[in-house]
Every structure is written in C-alpha cells, then in structure tokens.
Amino acid sequence: MSELSGYAIIILAAGNSSRLGEPKQLLVYQNKTLIRHIAEAAIEAKSAAVIVVTGSNAPSIEKELHSLSCHSVHNPDWESGMASSIVVGTDELMRTHPNIAGAIYAVSDQPFVSVALFDALINKALEKNSGIVASEYDNTFGTPVLFSNKYFPALLTLSGAEGAKKLVKKFADEATSIPFPLGSVDIDTPDDYQKLLRNS
C-alpha cells in the first residue's frame, strides 16, 4: 500500500522529572496514572498507531502500559533533551508505518489531553489540509501538535532541548491551531501536582 493513510500519535515520556523528584508519568490523577491516561486517549482517538517513547524509568512505564495496544520504543539518549525523543519516535514511526500521513506529538504531563482533542487535531488537518496543527493556550502554540509527514525530515534534525515548537514557529505560515485552554496545566513540580489534585 503506497497511499498515505492515517495519523499516528507519539507520546514523549522519556524525561526523569528532575524538578518533581519522582516519575511524573506515574503520578495518579483521577485513579489513573498520567501516562496511562494519555495512552488510552491516544488509542481511543482515530489514530493509526500509538508509539510511546521511554527513557528514564522505562521498565515502570512499560509495565504500566503492558496491557494496552501501543508500542514502546526506548530512547537511550533521553538525558540529552526532548529533541532526542522526538527523533527516536519519528524514526520508529517511519520504520514501522512508512505510509503514515503524519503524527501528533504529545507529552505525558498534560492531564487534560483527551480523545476529543486528538480527534480535533486530526479533523482540522484533514479539513484545512494543514501540514501543522498545534494546540493553542496562553497565547502560544504547544503540544499536542500534529505534523504531516513532509515535516518528518525537519523533526529529525532537532537536537538538545529543542521541542517541536521550534518548527511550529519556523513554519508559522503553514500552521493552524485549535483552542486548548487547559493545555497550560502541566506537572513539573510537587506544587503543580498538589494544585491539580486540589482542583479536581
């Protein structure tokens, strides 16, 4: 099959949560770990494949996901920054799904990412024929963000702490967005987590 088909979701879950002091991926919110929450949402969405990039604490995270129909790939260079996980995930996707139309890149510490949000990103890409569809919050573009496969070569050039945002800015005239006001809620510190629990 040479025809392009579907969108994958790549979940970047390799970081060691240094500011938090424990793996943020395994924090429990509403009776579910953050990594399981986003993985289940990705699987339920109209995605063609779900890839989870692990790094620090990989065995614990993979154990948490073992019953789900997603595919884990380990990033041995996770300590070099988020770009290495984007590269590992993109590389794995191109190898396993060479005809994929594009991918959504998501992180594991945004507790309000949902099936509806993933589907909205995909729908917008299909409706507008947009190469990049980002989530918009706090007057900026962020994750989750969808890239069509024409941007895969550019994603593979990212390095260090660079995230996909660099490419959203670089190709701003080719990007569109959908509102995701709760995208600004992410978990980096113990205070962030306690605030999330208090407000739930």
UniProtKB/TrEMBL annotation:
InterPro entries listed in its UniProt record: MobA-like_NTP_Trfase (IPR025877), Nucleotide-diphossugar_trans (IPR029044)
Pfam families: NTP_transf_3
Organism classification: Bacteria, Pseudomonadati, Bacteroidota, Cytophagia, Cytophagales
All copies of domain MobA-like NTP transferase, residue ranges: 10-170
Protein's recorded name: Molybdenum cofactor cytidylyltransferase
Originating organism: Dyadobacter psychrophilus
Coiled coil: none
GO MF term set: nucleotidyltransferase activity
The entry's keywords: Nucleotidyltransferase, Transferase
